[in-house]
Amino acid sequence: MVKKIIVDSSPLIILLKSDLEHILSELFEEVLVPDAVWQEVLAGRKYDTARKKLPLLITFKQILVENSDETVKSYNLGDGESAVLNLARASSDSVVMLDDFAAGKCAKVLKIPFLGTGGALILAKQKGLIGSVSETLTRVQKERLWLSDEIIELIKQKAGE
């Protein structure tokens, strides 16, 4: 069982705005948020839900990432995605949570296990943390998570819905 999850800003913001951030703490022993991701979330609008909630989450650990992998650099990712992948390279027994396609490709090349928001929802349903992936997908889509119809159907299928 993977003990740590390292979260990028896009899925983190979606979960915070959808009141689903608790699933990460319940699925994993540690929720690590690289400082670059933390700062991206805090850069939101003054009354942004994610911006207000993140500093209050005592179970989420803000981590400064100082090392930089050459392969990660070659993908020209954003600061948050790069920090997530660099931290994963330096951290054993972890999975990363990304919704960025290029960052996912880089994770594959580096053999870093990863999942997206949909994958986290499937795990949450399997553990009994949410009742319905379909209903929860509707909720996160209202917070601007874009998924193609094919991906939505695949997620529902994998969740047994």
Care to describe what's here?
With 161 residues, the protein is an alpha/beta fold. It has a single domain, classed as Rossmann fold. 52% of the residues lie in helices and 12% in strands. The protein contains ten helices and five strands; from the N terminus they run βααβααβααβαβααα. It has helices at residues 9-17, 22-27, 35-42, 49-53, 70-74, 79-90, 101-109, 117-126, 133-142, 149-158, and strands spanning 4-7, 30-34, 60-63, 94-97, 114-115. Strands 3-2-1-4-5 form a five-stranded parallel β-sheet. Helix 7 links the parallel strand 4 and strand 5. Helix 3 packs antiparallel against helix 6. The protein is globular, with a radius of gyration of 15 Å. 43% of the residues are buried. The mean pLDDT is 93.
What is the element layout, followed by pairings?
Blueprint: E1 4-7, H1 9-17, H2 22-27, E2 30-34, H3 35-42, H4 49-53, E3 60-63, H5 70-74, H6 79-90, E4 94-97, H7 101-109, E5 114-115, H8 117-126, H9 133-142, H10 149-158
Helix pairs in contact: 3-6
Please give a quick description of this structure.
The chain is of the alpha/beta class. It is 52% helix and 12% strand.
Considering the chains and any ligands shown, give keywords for the structure.
161 residues; alpha/beta; Rossmann fold; five-stranded parallel β-sheet; 10 helices; 5 strands; 52% helix; globular
The low-pLDDT segments are none
Largest sheet: 5 strands, parallel
Radius of gyration: 15 Å
Q: Could you give me the name of the CATH homologous superfamily?
A: 5'-nuclease
So what's the overall shape?
Answer: globular
